């Protein structure tokens, strides 16, 4: 091939690797989770800010009432999981684009996923173990919590 020959753009630069293409699945996850997050976040905002008393109705009793039903627990947990994984995957892409050395890149990516896993675990525990009746009980919950 001479210097004045243009290579066909569809010619593979390197042989294709066998196995799962994680970049492709990460790309597909970002698109799917993005669409689902739009629905979850706008549903969350609509229920919390538009229904009832709006912003004035947001207090501890409102959250306790929402987390008393499994539907809202799962809604918020799915939103939490998707948002954290989506954001971490986006940060991983940025690290891959701008960090040129393999050592620091690996350290940063591991740190991102460890922090995301910790926040997912902590947030899930908070949602599913939320107990509004731990003393002192607010006046708004006095009728709900056993004495």
UniProtKB/TrEMBL annotation:
Transmembrane domains' residue ranges: 25-51, 71-95, 107-130
SUPFAM superfamilies: Fumarate reductase respiratory complex transmembrane subunits
Subcellular location field: Membrane
Record keywords: Heme, Iron, Membrane, Metal-binding, Transmembrane, Transmembrane helix
Pfam families recorded: Sdh_cyt
InterPro entries registered for this protein in UniProt: SQR/QFR_C/D, SuccDH_FuR_B_TM-su
Protein name per the record: Succinate dehydrogenase, hydrophobic membrane anchor protein
Native source organism of the sequence: Microbacterium kribbense
Organism lineage string: Bacteria, Bacillati, Actinomycetota, Actinomycetes, Micrococcales
Gene (UniProt): sdhD
């Amino acid at each position: 091939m001479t210097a004045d020959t243009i290579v066909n753009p569809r010619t593979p630069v390197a042989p294709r690797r066998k196995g799962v293409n994680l970049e492709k699945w990460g790309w597909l996850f970002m698109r799917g989770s993005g669409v689902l997050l739009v629905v979850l976040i706008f549903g969350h905002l609509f229920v919390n800010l538009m229904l009832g008393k709006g912003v004035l109705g947001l207090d501890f009793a409102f959250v306790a009432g929402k987390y008393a039903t499994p539907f809202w627990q799962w809604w918020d947990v799915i939103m939490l999981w998707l948002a954290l994984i989506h954001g971490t995957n986006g940060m991983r892409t940025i690290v891959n684009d701008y960090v040129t050395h393999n050592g620091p890149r690996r350290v940063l990516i591991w740190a991102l996923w460890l922090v995301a896993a910790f926040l997912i675990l902590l947030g899930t525990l908070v949602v599913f173990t939320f107990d509004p009746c731990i003393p002192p009980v607010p006046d708004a919950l006095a009728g709900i919590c056993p004495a």
